[in-house]
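fyi for ur records
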Amino acid sequence: MAATTATTLLLGACAAPQGDALYRQAAGVRDDPKTIERLVSQAEDLTVVDCLLPGKMRRMGRTITWVTRPRPVKMIASECEILGGQYILFDRANPDTALAVWRSAADAGDATAQTYVGEIYERGLGRPRDYTTAAQWYRKAADQGYPRAQLLLGTLYEKGLGVERDPVQALEFYRKAAGLTQDKVVYLAQALAAARPSPTRAAPVAAPAKAPDRAMAKAQFQQIRAARSASDHSVRKVQTQVAQAKEEVVRSGRTKRMIDQPTPEITTRKRLIDQYVAVSQQAESQKLVMESQRRIETLAEPVVAQQ
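which gave:
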């Protein structure tokens, strides 16, 4: 509220004749859209974050009162701050505070919180890197079908960090993160299993995949590559939609600040923000699918090329 008032006063002063020259000197042409967007973005952060909202106060009768556990939701950072929520930006937040914020929700079984806790341990934020603990938290979230955790856990299996290196398991988690059914990668999994070295020297080396399996593995690889290419196009398209939705939010903010209105159009503003958050979530989901497909492609390409 204070930021909005300060911005209104600032732009109101710039509208006066004495402030107009100063405005142009500092920000360029008065009606330049880029100038307005920069001023508005300074007063209102439109970054979409995972916000941990405070729990609800509940009462039973006249004597029993309790607070429910915090709720993680998607919203823009400025709204999260207004509602008294907490959000984590790893390059700004104290790692210990971040862990404390998400740990209670993670212990309660929230998949988003479990993934954040895993990332804190994997990245070594405020502590030594602990891939084993990270894998344990990722698995909790992955078992609930959370795609980001599945992607991150697959990466640990691909690299052998915190878990035994297993490209077949990595492929399985990438498949789940990409939303693919098992039959879409079954021959790729067979090819990876056939190329996997034996865990002990005494054990016999796995026989190479049969010729029909190799052909099907190549066919599935080409299908994954084509799907990834289509996902690239979809991501670019939805990113354009995100930019347009953000521009609508910024424009609505500009209207409220540049035009005298007796009552701000709060309902319209809220609708535009909700639309922006929804499109941003869609962009995140599509980028995750594309990244999972790319990981499958990178993982399987050497094996398919050798065959």
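The first helix runs from residue 2 to 15. thats all i got for now
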